[in-house]
Design a protein that fits this description.
Elements lengths: L17 H22 L18 H5 E5 L6 E5 L10 H7 L19 H24 L5
Antiparallel strand pairs: 1-2
Amino acid sequence: MSELNVRLVGFSRIDYDKREIRRALRLEINKVRDDARSLLSSSSPSAPGEFPGRLTGVLQRAIKSKVLRGGLAAIARPEKTKRMGKDYYPAFLVHGVKQRKGRVLNPGLKPRLDPMPAALARRSDAATTALRDALQRSLIPRT
């Protein structure tokens, strides 16, 4: 999780335009979502410890982003879709599946890398700068 804290000295109360902050959040969270999707774009099968490969693109398209209702937080995450069936398989990819003894049909699955923290880490500095600039632009002088 990335967090931005800005301290402004000399203000007892700050008025700001939320639309500017929401716009910057929406742009930055969409870039994080796009980076996460691009990490999943390899069409070759993945090995344990790599990012999951793309066979059908269901996981890639399942990564959604949104600005939360209050307008001061945003989320990018893979959501469960109908094409995933009854199981939420991004969890199986990230955490792996133990091999069950005596079961030929369940050979186990070694964990793969989670693309969401990697995408956020890639964009963290740029997002912090963009949000800081948006906060600066959104301040309303008080009379």
